[in-house]
Every structure is written in C-alpha cells, then in structure tokens.
Amino acid sequence: MKIDVLSIPDEGKELIYQEDPLSLHLSPDLELKGEVKIKGFLYKTGRTIIVKGTIEAEPYFECGRCSIGFYQPLMIEFDQIFIPKTQTRAVHHKNQVEKKRERPSYGGRVENSESEAENEIDPLVENFYEGTTLSLDEMVREQVLLALPMRPLCSPDCKGLCPVCKKNLNQSSCNCPKEENDNFTIKFYLSQDLKGKKGE
Question: pTM above 0.90?
C-alpha cells in the first residue's frame, strides 16, 4: 500500500485495506488463508508520519506436538514511525516517544511542531519513506513475520503423538505400556524444548 503523504489532512486519516499475501513477499514456506487485513490511522507531526492500528492474518501451521495442520488467526497491533529518508535529527530517549504516543490513536489534531517530532524518534522503531510516497508493505511484512510463534500448537492442551507408536493421543489413547510411554514422552518433549531454545 502506497500513500501520498501530502494527502494526509491535519486531523489525520483512517486507513482500511486488504493486501494479497503474495505482494508482501512473505516466506515461501508460509501459507496464509485469505488476504491480510490492515486497519489503522495515520497522522502527521511535521514531516514525521505515525501509523497505529492492527493487522489480521491467518497463517497455516503444523502443530509442534501432534503435527496436525491448522490455521491460526493472528491479531497484530502496531505503532510505527515513518520519517523522510534523508532527514537527520538528534537521538533522544525512548521514553520521549512513549510519552508522545499516549495521545489517542484515532482522530484529534496533532499540535507538535516538526522539530519536536524529529527529536522524539527512537532509532529502534523508525521507518523511512522517500519523497512524498510512503509504503506500508515492508512494515506489514515484518509485523506478520515477527508475530509467528516459534513452536505453534493446535491447542494449549495438545497431547501430541505417542513417541512409541506415533498415534495421535488427542484422537484416541494407545496400548503402549504406560510407564514406557511416559518415559519416551518426557524425553521426547524435553529434546524438542531444548531444540526450540537453541533455535531462539
């Protein structure tokens, strides 16, 4: 989604649209159900643009315990700053940005001057735009990828697979000796957890 910065009125502008996942260039291994939905509000403080809102996406996962495939709806909140790419400014503490962001997300004219906006930017949360055109595609892409769980589960209480006979224990119990089954289960999930921690 490309936005003409000059078209954003002083009172701000509501933003509602849908994006084809293919146009966002997400991971080739990531499958999404339907389109990515973006809803938010843009407002200007000088040449700085602040965008706040939500992203809805429904990616496909394989459960980390039972391997069953499922779609999981995600509701991702975002609060992002965009500044001109050639703009130079002093770096100030993040608390200044947080204080600035206490204003309501929707409606209301922003009274901060351009110099105040430039001085209250945290380098960890800034994005850039060139000329008078602002693109949200890269921001949306990053927000979706960051929201993906490291180890997705079809449900918090998923029982997983029997490590002995591989039967899905959510669907039915197995006849494997309980003590042997429990020992295998403990060792199996401990090894999975350790792999997950190393991956982080």
Answer: no
